[in-house]
Amino acid sequence: MNLLKFSLDILCLMCYTVSRITGQKGLRNMPAQWDSAGKRLLREMPQHVVTWLLAGAIFRRSLATELKSRSIFADGLYAVIVDNKPALMHIEFQSYRHQHMPERLLEYNVLAASENHWLPVYTFVIYLRKDGNVPQSPFIRRLPGGEEYHRFHFSVIEVAKIPARQLLQLGLHGLYPLALLAEGGMEPEIAQDMITTLTESREIELLALAYTFGGLVPGGAAYDSWFKRSFAMLDDILEESWTYQEIVKKGLQKGMQQGLQQGLQQGLQKGREEGQKRAEEQRKRAEEERRRAEEQRKRWILEQHEMIVNLVRMRFPEFAALAQSYIETINDMEVLHRLINRLFEVQTVAAAQQAIFDARTEAAERVEE
């Protein structure tokens, strides 16, 4: 059996079974799949997400999503630049409406600001599926006498109310997986346009996320069959995706459970042999995942190089060509992070040059250590 096709079938089978047997209520019991896919989407092309939610804003970096003072986690927290001033962007994904969502958003907003020098925070909640009337902004608190004492504004995005074609026409590939959840997203031509564009641009992780979102749509048996056929020709491409590898892993775990049950019915010896076989497969897969993680790290470094060069070209164009040759020698992720922050702060070419020289020196010293 083709391992990748087995995993694809398992994922669609799980999603379809839940939607058919338990109906809409069943999907409420699947927040982990929705949340996990949403968080991965935020990691892939953050500037595309920022551009969609806040026109003109510039993505600076992703921040830790754990709000330590309460040990709670946000789905996404970005440092951004708005009108040349630093700010934060907080994003939450929801698969269904929650009565107390505004209170949660307010709590996240205040905690995020308090842990990041009290920078202003733009808060967005993105509803991934239609679920009636969701709480709207602003959230207002009143005293017992009716006087207003607090007003909190946040932005609500309901993906199911956005025409899928309109979402694709933005040209922001980082949002394309959401098209399957948008209005009309289950139409074959929409999905095919999305798949074709992401395939031609080699956006492998986004293709894997599109498959994940599409597998969670309760479209019925006919939809599931058509959707799997649409992705059947992409197995070789999707093998390169770490997101897809996680889908494969979950599919294997499901298959292992089924295999163990059959093994118990057919005899303990056969079950032990199957378990040993799966253990060897897991070991090989772990080695492959480590290799892919290293490739992902190299890809991230190249993206940071490009971001820094673009930043220097925008602020100090006369220094851009020379800066590129220096920056390409820096391959330390932490050093690159600090350099980006420093380049946002400096005001002169000389200061930018010094920041890059210092970063090169620091990276060299860390290698020697």
Layout of secondary structure:
Layout: H1 3-28, H2 31-44, H3 46-53, E1 58-62, E2 66-67, E3 72-73, E4 76-82, E5 85-94, H4 101-114, E6 121-127, E7 139-142, E8 148-152, E9 155-158, H5 164-169, H6 188-200, H7 204-216, H8 221-232, H9 235-238, H10 242-266, H11 268-315, H12 320-327, H13 333-345, H14 349-368
Parallel strand pairs: 5-6, 6-9
Antiparallel strand pairs: 1-4, 2-3, 4-5, 7-8
Helix pairs in contact: 1-8, 1-10, 2-7, 7-10, 10-11, 11-12, 11-13, 13-14
Number of helices: 14
Q: Could you tell me the number of beta strands?
A: 9
Strand order of the largest sheet: 1-4-5-6-9
Q: Strand-residue fraction?
A: 5-15%
**Major β-sheet annotation:** 5 strands, mixed
Distance between the termini: 48 Å
Oligomer: single chain
Could you say which overall geometry the principal axes of the C-alpha atoms support?
globular
Mean pLDDT: 78
Succession of helices and strands: HHHEEEEEHEEEEHHHHHHHHHH
Report the radius of gyration as a whole number of Å.
23 Å
- Fraction in helix: 55-70%
